[in-house]
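Summary for the steering committee. The consortium agreed at its last meeting that each partner would contribute one worked example illustrating the joint modelling workflow. Our contribution is presented below. We chose a case with several input lines so that the handling of multiple components could be demonstrated. No manual editing was applied between input and output; the record is shown as generated.
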Amino acid sequence: MDRTPSGITNLDKLIEGGFPKGRTLLVAGGAGSGKTIFSVQFLYSGAVLYDEPGVYVSFEQPVEDVVKDGQRFGWDLSEIQANKKLTLLDFSPSKTKTTEVVIETPQFNLSSLIKAIEFTVNEIGAKRVVLDSVTALLLQFRYVDVVRRELQRIGSSLRKLGCTNVFTSEVPRGSVGLGRFGVEEFVVDGVIFLHVIEKGLLRFRCIEITKMRGTKAELGLRAMGITESGIIVYPEKIYTYDQLTM
Amino acid sequence: METGIRFFTAKHCGFCRAAKNVLNGVIEQFGSAIRVTEIDIDENPRAAIEEGILALPVIIIGTWKFVGVPDKEDVMTAILNAFGARSEGSTEGGSKELYQEGRQ
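What follows is the complete predicted structure of the assembly.
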């Protein structure tokens, strides 16, 4: 199986060299776990190291904030945008702030979003797509079942385009599922969980691969850090559940 | 006074045809006073990106946004609220008042 390097330092050692090419991965975690950093690092490294243009679709933060936050890690997203290696699509609520009254009925589809993504992918020859986050997308609608059905359409559309995709999902504190709506994990080929585990006064960042189709993934909780150059995984540092909870 | 409605649609979208029927049924009561700009996303995907339109159909009337196939009463209320327009059969009265009655 062809692989797409994740761009996350050391992660590919755990997943046979990278994400399965043309598949969709879910990166789940709580607030502040590093989901957006992970997804932007995936796109930035794709553009800079592997000559694979990418599309970032924001449903939460204005894209200006994403560009600004990238500077903390030395990622000049404006430059790679100018070089047609990255396009940022802003579908955050701030984009439609002039709308005061929204009336929604269940007779709709997400064809507009799908068309926007397909158009942009074709325009720059993108190989990587990020949807950040599907939770925020779902929160923009009242009829979640419709959006869930449409997420599957988005996934199959991206598959036809041959892109490797990362969807992010916010997991509420104490939740046992992988997303606020409990549906996100069913529409993807792989799941990576970013944990922030508190033990006493200490907090540990860990990464866990819980599902990866077509891949012999190394299971278990691995230590992870967010450094000034982005996310680093420490594959040799494996935590047991007892170490982190007792 | 702005008298434009923006209707985001696509040819392959069945819900869009239903929404268009509702919209046309309402605006025909206003004669030529109200202009509808139809934006076909297949022909103009940049419009979806620039306006942040995720779903279809979407109708934007002033500060009101309809996602899906709307009720004609809601569309009428939005038009009266946005444009202060009156249909031939409507009585005198402020559009704001009508909006408040419809929402309370």
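Chain B has one domain: 4-103. DSSP finds four helices and four strands in chain B.
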